[in-house]
Amino acid sequence: MAAPALRAAPGWSGLSLGALRAVWRLPGLSQVRWSRYGPEFRDPLTDKEHYRRPEAELTEEEKHEQELKKTQPIKAAPSTKTSSVFADPVISKFTNMMMRRGNKVLARSLMNQTLEAVKRKQFEKYHAASAEERAAIERNPYVIFHRALKNCEPVIGLVPILRGGHFYQVPAPIADRRRRFLAMKWMITECREKKHRRTLMPEKLSHELLEAFNNQGPVIKRKHDMHKMAEANRALAHYRWW
Amino acid sequence: MLKGITRLVSKAYKLDSGRFLNTGTQASQSTAVYLNNQIQVESPRAISRTSESDPAKHGEQHEGQYYSIPLQDLKTVFPHGLPPRYVMQVKTFGEACFMVRKPALELLHYLKNTNFAHPAVRYLLYGEKGTGKTLSLCHVTHFCAKHDWLILHIPDAHLWIKNCRELLQSTFNKQRFDQPLEASTWLKNFKTTNERFLSQIKVQEKYVWNKRESTEKGSPLRDIVEQGITRVRNATDAVGIVMKELKRQSSSGMFHLLVAVDGINALWGRTTLKREDKSPIAPEELALVHNLRKMVRNDWNGGAIVLTLSQTGSLFKPRKAYMPHELLEKLLQKKGRRSCCF
Question: Which regions are flagged for Basic and acidic residues bias (chain A) (predicted)?
């Protein structure tokens, strides 16, 4: 994306990315990891509802935008971006975090197997339960996944602040995206490192997700540990200046 | 109509690598209605079931409908016959349902009218992947089990020609190889299915296992099976003896024999097994395969042989191959004729 790249390099705010590119086109030097698109490229929009609206409903601004799009170049949409009803941004992000060495096929199949395992376990519980308990058992694996990750998100985090040559862990509020990231990271680390070598990832993950859904298990414990540390370091809160 | 709808449903829900994820809600459970034969429900999610659980009474009116097997029967009739994913489904939903298909109905009709004085007729089920060959075989096996036939069911012949951890030189014939693990698991499952026949059938020859152990003539077949299960080294030979005795005695009229083999193209394909000097082993050099080939020849009477082709576990065959002349190529080439006799 062009916008975050600019924000990440505040020193170059005066120069546009195109000028940067002109400066860096030196022989023997090749860029890696920066977007090959110039600043004139627009991001693709894959929202079916947006394109289905009839002519009459569009405002003046939107009509102007549509006219612009006819001449401006648009970046190619990545293959993971879909307008499918089954595309879930949280699941996609989790799959990308589970991926190793770019093996998206493996990560995606592990994700599918995990959701299948969760669903099977819940179905077995459902069939074994009596009529009153059945209403309380949730069988949709997506609901379980979302609620489990929401239960794992910490409310407050710790930020290392340098004061007098020492780093102090200061409790501070954390942004939504950082909280979601921490929940997913803890879940994946827990399943990778703390389990027996021979258990498969879908098995481990499904077990952890079901425990987190019921507010139990090691990931929830880690969240509570984070909260306790923040509570313990309450005195250092005035080190924070934002 | 049902086929079109199920294909639509399957296209809509298919994600990658062929796994189906159903984001179904509680509503779908309540719309599955238990039906009697004729009425079709309009909602595509509701599967038509039939309450007729006896395969002998299945007719054309039941075509395309599911009938369920009680789980107790499943443990005796199919200790090893069902595909692994199907077993998972049975465990999750607590019920086993087979769809009544037209080829299975045809096969049931032929089996009901078998003439046990004539040599055993060989039936071959073939078709594209996912069309129901294995489960039609299981349907037919269930029918035969209900009618007290002796079932010789090899769940997947491909498992005998690949991924074998232990290959021993056969004690009976130095040129051949033994597979103790596969043979002993098969014997255990065979015993579970055919408990009542094992005491009735008597062995007609004396078999010497080693210096200290032998089975006398006239002892029940159960002894051979026990010997194979306890002494794993002799398991392959025990399997060979069981097959030989059953073939010999099937014409006596004491029992009807059903030989059901899934993935018969494995017996005439290639193996991935190698000797210590890394030279490949042909399937006929495996004792289990050799005995099974003899079993599916039609030189005995008093039963039937039902076979299935399968590309799924096969070795060195393209994914799209499903016709007999593609999967049984070696067999047809060897005989040099358009029709295969073996």
Answer: 43-70
Locate A209 and state its tokens. 């997700």
The complex's ipTM works out to 0.77
Give the torsion through C-alpha atoms of B119, B252, B308, A109, to 10 deg: -170
pLDDT value of position B148: 92
- Please report the residues numbered 183 through 242 in chain B whose beta carbons come closer than 8 angstroms to any beta carbon of chain A: none
Which residues, 6 or more positions from B28, have their beta carbon under 8 angstroms from its beta carbon?
A: B45
pTM for the predicted model, two decimal places: 0.80
Distances (CA, A) of B9 to A83, A111, B6: 19, 22, 5
How many CA atoms within 13 Å lie on the side-chain side of B189? 18
Amino acid at B4: G
**The pair of three-digit structure tokens given for residue A74, joined into one six-digit string:** 């648009």
- Chain B residues with CB under 8 Å of A108 CB are 16
- Residue whose token pair is 């921490």: A182
| Residue A200: half-sphere exposure toward Cβ, Cα within 13 Å | 10
Per-residue model confidence as pLDDT tens digits over A134-174: 999 999 999 999 999 999 999 999 999 999 999 999 999 99
Of B11, B13, B14, B15, which to mutate for an interface test with A (greatest number of A Cβ within 10 Å)? B15
DSSP SS3 for A104: helix
Neighbours of B332 (CB within 10 A): 17
Helical spans, DSSP H, in A25-59: 48-52
Q: What are the residue boundaries of the structural domains of chain B, listed by start? A: 60-328
Per-position b or e across B133-157, b if 16+ CB within 10 A of its CB: bbbbbbbbbbbbbeeebbbbbbbbb
Interface membership of A124 toward B (CB under 8 Å): yes
CA B56 – CA B147 distance, rounded (Å): 9
pLDDT in tens, A168-198: 999 999 999 999 999 999 999 999 998 888 9
Report which DSSP code applies to A74.
B
Q: Binning pLDDT at 50, 70 and 90, where does residue A31 land?
A: low
Q: What pLDDT score does B336 carry?
A: 62
Distance CA A144, CA A215 (A): 12
Check CB contact under 8 Å for A115 and B21: yes
- In B45-101 the beta strands, taken as DSSP E runs, fall at 66-69, 96-99
| Vertex B340: Cα angle to B337 and B342 (nearest 5) | 125
Q: Count the helices and strands in chain A (H runs, E runs).
A: 11, 2
